[in-house]
C-alpha cells in the first residue's frame, strides 16, 4: 500500500474512532479586535471577538476537541486567551498565558489553539496579556455532558450569566497608573455588567431606590438594555454564573427566590439553599431556581459589590414570568446587597460549600508545603504586591520553552522562598516595606502532593487587609479549610477537611486569614498560580509552578517564536 493510502486509512480510522465515542472537533475562528460599543450606555472602545462583546459563547460536550484559530487584529499589542478552568491535559502550550505557556500573538498573526475538554461544567475564557481582561476580552465556555448522560440534578431550562466590571478609563491608562511612581490606583468600577450590559447614566429601579439617576427608558434595540430572563411558572432553571471581574467581588440575588448551589468551578457540590451567593473573580457556579412565586409579577435579579467599599451601583435585570409582560416592572425594590465588609456572612456562605458524595477526596498526606504570604510592598517609589517578599515579573522567553529545552539564563533558576519569617506579624504594617522582583519557579516532581497555605496580612499603610481570590492553572485543588489570623503549622492541619473537601480552581483568602489548598502535581507543564484581581497580578501577585516538563510531547513551533526559544521554533522542534 502506498504511503498516501496508508495515511488516508489511518486518518479514516481515527475519524471513525472519534465518532464512535461521540466526540467532535469544534472549529472556531476568533478575530480579536478593538471596537466601539456602549457597554453601560456610554460609548467606549472595547476589546472583543468577531465584532462581539462579550466574545462568542463556546458550547461543547465532554470529550470534544476545540480547534480555535485566533487572529490578532489589534494594531499595536500582542494577545493571548486563557481557557479558564480547562486543565489542558497533554496540551500545556494551549493554556493561553503569555510568557508562561506561549509567546504573545503579534498583531496580524494567527495562533491555533487545540485542546480537549474533558469534564462538564461552567467555564469561561479571557485575555491573559497585560490587562486585556479589563478591556473586555472575555466570553463564556460551557461544557455539557454527552447526550447519553444526565446531570445529577433536574432542570427544565438554562441561562448563562457572565459578570464583569467596567471602567471609563482604558486598560492602558490603568496599567500606566499602576506602574507609575507614585502608583495611581484604578479606583472602583463605574459599572457592573451582566453579559456585557449595564447602565451608568440611568437606573432600572429609579422609582424604588434612593438615586439621582433617571429611570431607564429603553425603546428596544439598545445594546446596554438588560437581557431579561424569561421563565415559565412552576419550572426549575439552571443558571450558570461566571465572574470575570477585574476587581470587584460580587453578590447575586433574585427577589423572593431561593437559590440552590449545585456546581462550583466545574465540580459538583453537595446542594444547599441560600438567598444570595457571593462570587469572587475567577469563580463559576451553577444554581437551580424554581419559579414558585406569584406568576402575575416580575422579579429583580441584582448584582452588587462585596469585599470593597462600593462606589458602584447595582447591576439589575428582570426575571420575567411569561404569564405577564416583560415590560412590567417588579412591584418592590431590588434585593439589598449585604454590607460590603460583613466578612462573617461571606465566610459562612463559603464554608457551606462541600463536595458532592462520590467526589474524589484529597490524599491524606502531602509531600511538599508552601506557605505563601501576600503583602503589599515598595520598590523605590513603586508600589508592588509580593509573595514571600518577591514580586513576580515575567521573562521574555516563555517558561515552557525554557524548561523543555533546558535553556540557561532565561529566568532565575533559584527557587522562590517556600515560606516567610516565623516572626512576621500579619496584623501590622510590614517592618520592612521593601521587596524585590523575581521570576523563579517552584518545581515539583510529577505526582507529588502539594499543600499551599495562602496567608493574608495587613496592607502597606494604615489598617486593612483585602480579599484575594487565587486561581490555579492546569489543576483543580481541594480546599482543605479557612482560618483566622496566622496559620500555625503543626496545629491548624488538625482542622483540615479531608473527607468532604470541595474541588475548585479558584479560592479566596479572607482579610487577616489563611486558606489551605492541596493538589496533585499530575499535569506536566508550567502553570500560573495568581490572584485573579487584574491590577494585583499586574503588580506582581503571582507565582509559577512546574512539574513533569520532561514528559511534555511536541510543542507547536508557533507557541515559542519569541526570546531564546525562537531558534527552536524556526528549526521545527
UniProtKB/TrEMBL annotation:
Chain ranges of the Plastocyanin-like domain: 37-146, 159-322, 428-548
Pfam families membership: Cu-oxidase, Cu-oxidase_2, Cu-oxidase_3
EC category name: oxidoreductase
Principal subcellular localization: secreted
Entry keyword Transmembrane helix: no
Cofactor entry: Cu cation
UniProt-listed InterPro entries: Cu-oxidase-like_N (IPR011707), Cu-oxidase_2nd (IPR001117), Cu-oxidase_C (IPR011706), Cu-oxidase_fam (IPR045087), Cu_oxidase_CS (IPR033138), Cu_oxidase_Cu_BS (IPR002355), Cupredoxin (IPR008972), CuRO_3_AAO (IPR034267)
Superkingdom to which the source organism belongs: Eukaryota
Reactions accelerated catalytically: 4 L-ascorbate + O2 = 4 monodehydro-L-ascorbate radical + 2 H2O
GO cellular component annotations of the record: extracellular region; plasmodesma
Molecular-function GO terms, alphabetical: copper ion binding; L-ascorbate oxidase activity
Keyword Signal attached: yes
Gene Ontology biological-process entries: negative regulation of defense response to virus; response to hydrogen peroxide; response to virus
Signal peptide: 1-22
Localization: Secreted
The entry's keywords: Copper, Disulfide bond, Glycoprotein, Metal-binding, Oxidoreductase, Repeat, Secreted, Signal
PROSITE patterns: MULTICOPPER_OXIDASE1, MULTICOPPER_OXIDASE2
Function: May be involved in a redox system involving ascorbic acid.
Family: Belongs to the multicopper oxidase family.
UniProt cross-references to NCBIfam families, sorted A to Z: ascorbase
Known partners and oligomeric status: Dimer.
Identification of the protein by name: L-ascorbate oxidase
Amino acid at each position: 500500500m502506498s504511503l498516501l493510502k496508508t495515511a488516508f486509512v489511518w486518518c479514516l480510522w481515527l475519524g471513525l474512532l472519534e465518532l464512535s465515542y461521540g466526540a467532535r472537533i469544534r472549529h472556531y475562528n476568533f478575530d480579536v479586535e478593538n471596537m466601539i460599543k456602549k457597554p453601560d450606555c456610554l460609548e467606549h472602545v472595547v476589546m472583543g471577538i468577531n465584532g462581539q462583546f462579550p466574545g462568542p459563547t463556546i458550547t461543547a460536550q465532554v470529550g470534544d476537541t476545540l480547534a480555535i484559530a485566533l487572529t490578532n487584529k489589534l494594531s499595536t499589542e500582542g494577545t493571548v486567551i486563557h481557557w479558564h478552568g480547562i486543565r489542558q491535559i497533554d496540551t500545556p502550550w494551549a493554556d493561553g498565558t503569555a510568557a508562561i505557556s506561549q509567546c504573545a500573538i503579534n498583531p496580524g498573526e494567527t495562533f491555533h489553539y487545540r485542546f480537549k475538554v474533558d469534564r462538564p461544567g461552567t467555564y469561561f475564557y479571557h485575555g491573559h496579556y497585560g490587562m486585556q481582561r479589563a478591556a473586555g476580552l472575555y466570553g463564556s465556555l460551557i461544557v455539557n455532558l454527552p447526550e447519553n448522560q444526565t446531570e445529577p440534578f433536574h432542570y427544565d431550562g438554562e441561562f448563562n450569566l457572565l459578570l464583569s466590571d467596567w471602567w471609563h478609563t482604558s486598560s492602558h491608562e490603568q496599567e500606566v497608573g499602576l506602574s507609575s511612581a507614585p502608583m495611581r490606583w484604578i479606583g472602583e468600577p463605574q459599572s457592573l455588567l451582566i453579559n456585557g450590559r449595564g447602565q451608568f447614566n440611568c437606573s432600572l429601579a429609579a422609582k424604588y431606590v434612593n438615586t439621582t439617576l433617571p429611570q431607564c427608558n429603553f425603546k428596544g434595540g439598545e445594546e446596554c438594555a438588560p437581557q431579561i430572563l424569561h421563565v415559565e411558572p412552576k419550572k426549575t432553571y439552571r443558571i450558570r454564573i461566571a465572574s470575570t471581574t477585574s476587581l470587584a467581588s460580587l453578590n447575586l440575588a433574585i427577589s423572593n427566590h431561593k437559590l440552590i448551589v449545585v456546581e462550583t468551578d466545574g465540580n459538583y457540590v453537595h446542594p444547599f439553599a441560600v438567598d444570595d451567593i457571593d462570587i469572587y473573580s475567577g469563580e463559576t457556579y451553577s444554581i437551580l431556581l424554581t419559579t414558585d412565586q406569584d406568576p402575575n409579577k416580575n422579579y429583580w435579579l441584582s448584582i452588587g459589590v462585596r469585599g470593597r467599599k462600593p462606589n458602584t451601583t447595582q447591576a439589575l435585570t428582570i426575571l420575567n414570568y411569561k404569564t405577564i409582560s416583560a415590560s412590567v416592572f417588579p412591584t418592590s425594590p431590588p434585593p439589598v446587597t449585604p454590607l460590603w465588609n460583613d466578612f462573617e456572612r461571606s465566610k459562612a456562605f463559603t464554608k457551606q460549600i462541600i463536595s458532592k458524595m462520590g467526589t474524589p477526596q484529597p490524599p491524606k498526606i502531602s509531600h511538599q508545603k508552601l506557605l505563601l504570604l501576600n503583602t503589599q510592598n515598595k520598590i523605590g517609589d513603586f508600589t508592588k504586591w509580593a509573595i514571600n517578599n518577591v514580586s513576580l515579573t515575567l521573562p521574555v522567553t516563555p517558561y515552557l520553552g525554557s524548561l523543555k529545552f533546558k535553556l540557561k539564563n532565561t529566568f532565575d533558576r533559584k527557587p522562590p522562598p517556600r515560606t516567610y519569617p516565623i516572626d512576621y506579624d500579619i496584623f501590622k504594617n510590614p517592618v520592612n516595606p521593601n521587596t524585590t522582583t523575581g521570576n523563579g519557579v517552584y518545581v515539583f516532581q510529577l505526582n507529588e502532593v502539594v499543600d499551599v497555605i495562602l496567608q493574608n496580612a495587613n496592607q502597606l499603610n494604615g489598617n486593612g487587609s483585602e480579599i484575594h481570590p487565587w486561581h490555579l492553572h492546569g489543576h483543580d485543588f481541594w480546599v482543605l479549610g479557612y482560618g483566622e489570623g496566622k496559620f500555625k503549622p503543626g496545629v491548624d492541619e488538625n482542622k483540615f477537611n479531608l473527607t468532604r473537601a470541595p474541588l475548585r480552581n479558584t479560592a479566596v483568602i479572607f482579610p487577616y486569614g489563611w486558606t489551605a489548598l492541596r493538589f496533585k502535581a499530575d499535569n506536566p507543564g508550567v502553570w500560573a498560580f495568581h490572584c485573579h484581581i487584574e491590577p494585583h497580578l499586574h503588580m506582581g501577585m503571582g507565582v509559577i509552578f512546574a512539574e513533569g516538563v520532561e514528559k511534555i510531547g511536541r510543542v507547536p513551533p508557533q507557541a515559542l517564536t519569541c526570546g531564546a526559544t525562537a531558534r527552536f521554533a524556526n528549526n521545527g522542534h
